[in-house]
Amino acid sequence: MNTPRWLRLASWIAVAAWALGIFILSSFSGNKIEEMNTLDVSDKVLHFGAYAVGALALALALRWNTAWSWPRIVRVSVVAISLYGATDEWHQLYTPHRSGGDLADWTADALGAIAGAIAGAFLHAHYQLKNRRAPLGA
């Protein structure tokens, strides 16, 4: 693995920043969340997108910091981010004016995690192909 050290560290910082961002947003009251959603986007779309970003960040962090295969990285990323979504729903049970424990929200989280982890694998494969050196004598 010849990933620069700064990129390996930055990838974990990105995962931690994402998790902290989700935790902070989950701490806001339902009224505050409604105010922030100025584009009136469905909360399921927001959940899907947020958790896709988290899974993408985790998948890349795992790729750049382990020797794991992509199938393993995708599985671990999906499970870890989906579990984080479950804890987020539990956290919202104790946040004023939030529904919490919403199975539909968690399903959107899990589907986003699947999409983000798979996107990470495809983006990495595309980058690897695009930047592959030509064979000698070609």
Describe this structure in words.
The protein is an all-alpha fold. Helix content is 75%, strand content 0%. It has 5 helices and no strands. It has helices at 5-27, 30-36, 43-65, 70-92, 103-130. Helix 1 packs antiparallel against helix 3, helix 3 packs across helix 4 (70-92) and helix 4 runs antiparallel to helix 5 (103-130). The longest helix has 28 residues, at 103-130. The mean pLDDT is 92.
Structural class computed from helices and strand pairing: mainly alpha
Q: Biggest sheet: strands, sense, closure? A: none
Shape: elongated
Strand content: under 5%
Mean pLDDT: 92
Q: From the alpha-carbon coordinates, what is the Rg to the nearest angstrom?
A: 17 Å
- Residue stretches low in confidence (pLDDT < 50, at least 5 long) are none
Give the % helix. Answer: over 70%
Number of separate strands: 0
Order of helices and strands: HHHHH
Distance between the termini: 26 Å
Give a topology summary.
Blueprint: H1 5-27, H2 30-36, H3 43-65, H4 70-92, H5 103-130
Concise account of the structure shown:
By secondary structure, the protein is an all-alpha fold. It has helices at residues 5-27, 30-36, 43-65, 70-92, 103-130. Helix 1 packs antiparallel against helix 3 and helix 3 (43-65) packs across helix 4.
